[in-house]
Amino acid sequence: MQSWDEIAHAVGRTRREFLRDAAKVTVGSTLLRSGFARAAALPKQKKVVVITFGGGARDQETLAPEGQENVPNLLRELIPRATFFTQVVNRGILGHYVATASLATGAYETINNFAALPPQNPTVFEYYRKELKRPSSDAWVVAPSNGFNHIGESSSRSFGPGLGARVILPKHLLRAAISSGNADYAHLLRDNYETPYFTPELSGSDFELEQLEHLLKLSVDDFKMHARTLSSPDELSVYITKQLMRQVAPSLLWITMHDIDIAHAGTYSLYVEGIRRTDRLCAEIWKTIESQPEYAGKTTLLILPDFGRDADNDAGGNGFQHHRTGDALSRTTWLIAMGPGIREGVVYDRAVDSLDLVPTIGARMGFSALLSKGRPITEIV
Amino acid sequence: MLPNELKPEMFSSYPPEAKSLVIENLGVLRELPLSFESGLLREVIDFDYKFPSERRSLQRELTNLSHLSPAEKAEWLQGFSAITLSTKLEHLDWVNSPAQFTEQLSAHLWTTNQLDAFRLAANAYGDRLGAALPVEVPAVPRLGITVIGEGIPFYSGQLFRKLRPHGAYFSNVLPDEGLPTLLATVAARAKQHHAPYAHWYIDGGEAAGHDASLAFVSYGALESVRMALLRKIHSETEKPGMGPEMLRTLMAELRPTDLDMKEPGDQVLDRFQVKLLTEGSGTQIFSTSFTQWAAREALRRSEPVTLLVRFAPRQRQKPMNELLSPQAEQPDLDPLGSLIDGDMGAYYNWLNQQRLPGAENAAFLAWFERHNQAVVIGPAVPRGTESANAINMEQLLSWIV
Q: Which of A4, A126, A207, A238 has the greatest count of CB atoms below 10 A from its CB?
């Protein structure tokens, strides 16, 4: 039997072969431009946008030949302009909230995935704001469900209160705007596919509406009218993200996608539809980055799934439906990195830990992530 | 409490046959590590409601464990013995609530980073057990049939892409009398090789006329049970303090009578159907999820020699709270999405069939209902081949039966 590491490595190699054909990329080596040259290429006003390609998608529906039809934008628009890491390994708990919290802290969190709790370790937002003395308006999270309400700020004593990111929950915002049940918007309020019977209730609609009008410069009527044209919660998130980028232009912006997690309901067609939508939305965000003066030429975009999903050949799971077995495919994902100073069309298949994200962001933006357990990804810092 | 403290009276709430099984094997049960034992008791407690093949497997596993020397037992179970448990876990009532215990154990394994070690231990034990016990080859080579695409007038996309490399793809199947021919084939096998729960028909909608000797499950026939379950979930989630774990525990304890399955039917099959709805994900709301999960569980648990699965259109996606609300009106259907669900479901049905003993001789057929596309897989079928010749269902079956 192959060891876990062998399987994970094979997955990475396989991805690289797919990409070489599909996206016309080259294989990275040690012949990199020096770190000094990359630093010289970085603009002074650095911004970072992170997208979690959520809630986990497998090779055969994305990068393998039979899945490439589902991610045309990643393959044709983004990966050729990016450095691509084929093996990002998540060794933590494979639940969406706790895994996203781990990505945001650079330490494997052990908080209850289904409880409304802050991460235990300092988040990337706290490191950024504390060390660089940035205001709260400069770090934002756009999160998919009410359960992510505490993702922006940890319970760490040396960081924590007042140093976190502002969290915007588009669904909560919409609920506040429509004030009562309205069938026109119901499709945008889908929440938490893993425990579909429970949606944590949040109070405070006044604050939400204030965000809408004062920060995002959106009237309740305009917001409602536009929301009616959207088809999913992630589309709503991206709409809010674009508005946030236009009106506030935060330097550190984190967007968590979640439509794909409909897979938990066991419907393959809806899962694939979620992947296609997420693929399209990632490209939309990149276009927004390129078209806005506040972001163009100075923004690093990092796209990665929080984790994968169970393999078809693991009898302990039920294929694409869940991420419960902890097998190699459910733990192994990828990372797209693009922006100034990052090589284009290059693929690395060395193993990277998902905890490496935070120190990498720190290295690119100029702060240290002292308590993170990861290491900066040298090829892109 | 730990396994070495077990006493016969602790199993007083177990159903009669399960209790007897425990008493017979109490000696070995006292010697097992708790991380392993809880999983075993989870199976034992349901012994009275298990399918014959499951009962045989469980009895053989316990006999095998009993016959291992202390040194062998230590070697077989060393991976489980190395798992560290919390005192809180040890104090849970794992004897009477093994399912709830294993759920807590799972959370513990994730948070203490022991899940991979547990997986390794479970795989190693499973491999040893598989090698030690004689393989139960089926009396007749297995036959799996999956029918997809009911209600689709036209589809131009490629179907059965994952199955084609394993068999022959036929693009000119004459669809007339297709389903009746398949049902007749299944019925004939049930008559010729009669055994309880050996021949199944699972339908994702309203069932077609079928032979009464088949073990039969359908999404349509369970509508009142599904509605009763959704009402129960709805009322429970309204209660203050109710959370996901508590709800799962409550659902796991539901019995057929709790869900208006009033007529005294087949206890084993009734329990099986309730578990499909209470333990499956999405099975309560999407017929395609129900059908795939029912087929998976039927294959895993009863190891049938014949299984006919027919997917039907599921309801269109709506917000979860709407889908989960018991509603009387006719749902809006999504036939195209259901075809894609069924296509993947057919592949999973084949994969799950191939996990059973006798896989090398097993046969499989997948057909796009009322249309021309089908795939057959079997020992005599050349892999990765295609045929555009006109062929009817009987001729198609002759490739594999």
A: A126
